[in-house]
Amino acid sequence: MPEEDVPMLDSSPQPAAPPPAAAAAPAVSTVHHLKEIAALIEAGSLSKEVRRVSRAVRLTVVLRRRIAARDVSAFIAFALPASSDAYARLSALLPKEDDTEMDVDAAAPATQISIKHGLPEIEIYCYLLVLIFLIDQKKYDEAKACANASIARLKNLNRRTVDVLASRLYFYYSYVYELTNSLAEIRGNLLALHRMATLHRDELGQETLLNLLLRNYLHYNLYDQAEKLRSKAPRFEAHSNQQFCRYLFYLGKIRTIQLEYTDAKESLLQAARKAPTAALGFRIQCNKWAIIVRLLLGEIPERTVFMQKGMKKALTPYFELTNAVRVGDLELFRSVADKFASTFSADRTRNLIVRLRHNVIRTGLRNISISYSRISLADIAKKLRLDSKDPVADAESIVAKAIRDGAIDATIDHANGWMVSKETGDVYSTNEPQIAFNSRIAFCLNMHNEAVKAMRFPPNSHKEKESAEKRREKLQQEEELAKHMAEEDDDDF
């Protein structure tokens, strides 16, 4: 091997690194980014384009982890007049820092950004920014004061460009009270805000507030009140995918408690399917409830449901529970319910699991009916592990009810104390395959219709012909938004 081919380790001088071109341009500061967002909101307000305000909210989510107290203070001083009530109120809520730590906007480009003072959208955005910062810093008392002040200000506004910011404020208003275990205090305010949003035809606000009210009721197990509100609230086409997913989840929980398992299953599975991939916690909750509902319907979820990426550990208790129901072993079901009692209580599914006992017995009885053409009621009680005072009488009543419900095809010989199973016929001679195919076709058609409805087009796209420069600019904006969508969805859920 030639000598020059041998790699040398630190024996030759390293080549000089090329001068970094990017180092000449310093990084843009957080305050400058906030000023750009304010300019975007101002442009949306003056042109009455709600999409620009929505984009400003998304960009704020991206900056959320980088915002410090000095950045918020500097931005508030830039965006609000020093003599305004909002400036005095928000400045008092922010923590005081030394002057030496103030962020000097030296890294900002030479172009200076200025905005028009007095715009309600800018003021509401300042409230939102301070509220998010205080929640992240776990200063919940100050966050409550900020949220109450922002809601009081919103009651005097009726502008479509404020609706997007207002919906986010409603969410964090409820969130901070939930963090302090005082959701009941704001239920009246949320109802009043929902009535106001309905009168103002603020559909995004109605969506958000309806979900917050449903969450408020369900937090205190007030399912009847939640259903009354849901049934009487006006319904319209969903504006936010996140809010629609939440609505489906709450609807599924209400339907489950009301024993309407078929509708509950459809709502929960649809919510899990529509939820963004980044919203892992939300999807886990949807799958937990969907598994219980499917078990209550007599179905056994596929193993792939429990093996989804990032969900295996969280769904382990429900996997063991499903296995106990599938086998029809009542003793194993009891041991699993006791083993994971704390988990089921935290998920608020313990009461539903109590309902599953009858399904476990019925599954075990179905397995016995398939395995034996004739078996005594005493042996059935022994195999089902019935621990009552008179297990044979209980087994007889259980078998009689299963025959009446059509769960098994058998007869009871009362004289000899036997259960006699009938021969199983060919399932393809019945209507069951047709029903199964029909449900699959309906599911696919429903998904196609929802996908068509979810498609959005820019207004007047059929009338205006865009220039190449406008198309490039719009494509660049869409790429930026797609880049931030994952973080935005994670924050929302």
From TrEMBL:
Keywords carried by this UniProt record: Proteasome
> Record keywords: Secreted included?
no
Q: What is this protein called?
A: PCI domain-containing protein
- What role is this protein assigned? Acts as a regulatory subunit of the 26 proteasome which is involved in the ATP-dependent degradation of ubiquitinated proteins.
The record lists the organism as Eragrostis curvula (weeping love grass)
Ranges for domain PCI come to: 245-426
Q: Recorded GO terms, molecular function? A: enzyme regulator activity
**GO aspect biological process, one term:** ubiquitin-dependent protein catabolic process
* Taxonomic superkingdom: Eukaryota
Q: Where is this region: Disordered?
A: 1-23, 457-493
Q: Where is the composition biased (Basic and acidic residues)?
A: 461-486
